[in-house]
Amino acid sequence: MPDAGSEDFLHHRELLFSIVYNMLGTVADTEDVVQETWLSWASVQDKEIANPRAYLVRIAVNHALSQMRRARRSRESYIGPWLPEPVLTEPDTPDTAIRTESVSLAMLVVLETLTPLQRAVFVLREAFAYDHAEIAAILGRSPAAVRQLAHRAKERVEARRPRYDLDRSTQRIVTERFLDAAIGGDLDALMDVLAPEVVMWSDGGGKRRAALRVIEGREKVARLVAAVSAQLPTFNARPVQINGGPGVVLFIGGTLYAAAVFDPAPDGERVRGIYGLINPDKLGRLAESVHPPAGRLPP
Prior knowledge:
Elements: H1 4-24, H2 27-42, H3 52-74, H4 105-111, H5 116-127, H6 132-139, H7 143-160, H8 168-184, H9 187-193, E1 194-203, E2 215-216, H10 218-231, E3 236-242, E4 245-252, E5 255-264, E6 271-277, H11 284-289
Parallel strand pairs: 1-6
Antiparallel strand pairs: 1-2, 3-4, 4-5, 5-6
Helix pairs in contact: 1-2, 1-3, 2-3, 5-7, 6-7, 8-9
């Protein structure tokens, strides 16, 4: 049977995974940080820890900050746009850690514009409802400094992504409209379902062919989507929920080829963001959890 220290860690592991993933945006790095947190925790189990949860979160967040700084330096040489690693958030996802509080992929992209400290404060405050004093204790900063970090982070995020709420049904309908137009290569239908300000990110990481920059504007995005759809061989498409939002996975020859996440506009009528992940290094987790649908959809 696990000892008391191990039970404390296992009890809070899901929370640790969620916080760290939302700070880093990659599953592999998150798992490394959670493992580092366990090793740090194991080394102090002989000491009296009054609040194991607070202690574990502090260890995990500070390990994540160190990893975030290393990762940002390595991304300077990344080929093309960098996107977070997607996680499946459907109710029957086998790994419960993946089904916890998850920030949308579009929001994770915005969080990449924050400094590491701003991102840590924003995630703890906005996604996990920690108050300023609790965050100050986690980061070893004063409450006043944390309030300032929180204010600046929120300002930057809301300037790029104002808050709005759409129900799942509305998200699903606009996503299905886009998929019907994209699979059929219908340029007029694509122009109708895309918002004028739409942006499209394609992350191939230099390992699969993808646009090397973010594509902006309805006409450019529509033409690119139609061209890609025409070039793909016969594929299977399956709608899924990724990072809490509408998405789709594409299989070619039974192998997961790509995942895409859609960001509906505030009016719920059009798509304003498309995030395509083609880099096979970022599809491993999804490949373990999703399988091709029975039906086949022609390009």
